[in-house]
Design goal:
It contains six helices and eight strands, in the order ββαβββαβαβαβαα. The protein is an alpha/beta fold and 214 residues long. The protein has one domain: Nucleoside phosphorylase domain (Rossmann fold, 3-Layer(aba) Sandwich), CATH 3.40.50.1580. The strands form two sheets. A five-stranded mixed β-barrel has the order 3-7-6-4-8, surrounded by four helices.
Length: 214
């Protein structure tokens, strides 16, 4: 794991990129908590829309987190409300899936089974971090940006390029793109979306830690 330490406003922060999947997220969060005196965890990442009409780049803050086994520990209510107020993030249900839901049909099926009220999104890591944070007595918040809407299927079948831990096998994906140039436009579109989502997440984190609201 590679950790980056710094400051945002007057807040000391440390960041770690865990990679995709529950196992990687849990390992990264555990390493972070073992090494640093963390007061609060902020989970940042992308998500797929489950509820209809969530636009690309929309920010969602978790009000509850679920996985295939049921509810996860709740996020910190005060900081979640601050995210919603300062960044315009919509409170939502986060469903952590063990597999990537890349088609409109799979997302619609998850939405029906979830039976959530209001906005909902799917990710691959939040529940794992929530469980670990709870076990260590560290409050957490989760903020995600929508990278693909509920009504659409990903232009590239990323689920075919996941390893047994749920991480994207990037070299395998690159080799497939070389052999199938028709995948390249879809990959470039995903890259543009990732850039948009990353910028919005970064701005929101800076707003959350703004020194005038400490």
């Amino acid at each position: 794991m590679r950790f980056v330490e710094g400051e945002l406003g007057r807040s000391k922060v440390v960041a770690v990129c865990t990679g995709e999947g529950c196992e990687s997220a849990s390992e990264g969060a555990r390493a972070l908590l073992d090494r640093f005196p963390v007061e609060r965890l902020v989970v940042l990442g992308f998500a797929g829309g489950l509820s209809p009409s969530l636009e690309i780049g929309a920010l969602l803050v978790a009000r509850r987190v679920l996985d295939g086994h049921g509810p996860s520990p709740d996020p910190d209510a005060v900081w979640s409300a601050r995210l919603a107020r300062r960044c315009g993030a919509r409170p939502a249900t986060f469903y952590t899936s063990r597999r990537l839901l890349g088609t409109a049909a799979s997302k619609q099926d998850a939405w029906r089974r979830l039976g959530a009220d209001g906005a909902a999104a799917v990710d691959l890591e939040t529940a794992a971090v929530a469980a670990l944070a709870h076990s260590r007595g560290v409050p957490y918040v989760a903020l995600r940006a929508i990278s693909d809407a509920a009504e659409e299927t990903l232009p590239v079948p990323l689920d075919r390029f996941l390893d047994e831990r749920g991480r994207i096998r990037r070299l395998a994906l690159l080799r497939r793109a070389v052999l199938q140039p028709g995948l390249v436009p879809g990959l470039l579109a995903l890259r543009r979306r990732a850039a948009l989502c990353s910028e919005r997440l970064a701005d929101a984190l800076c707003d959350l830690l703004a020194e005038d609201d400490r």
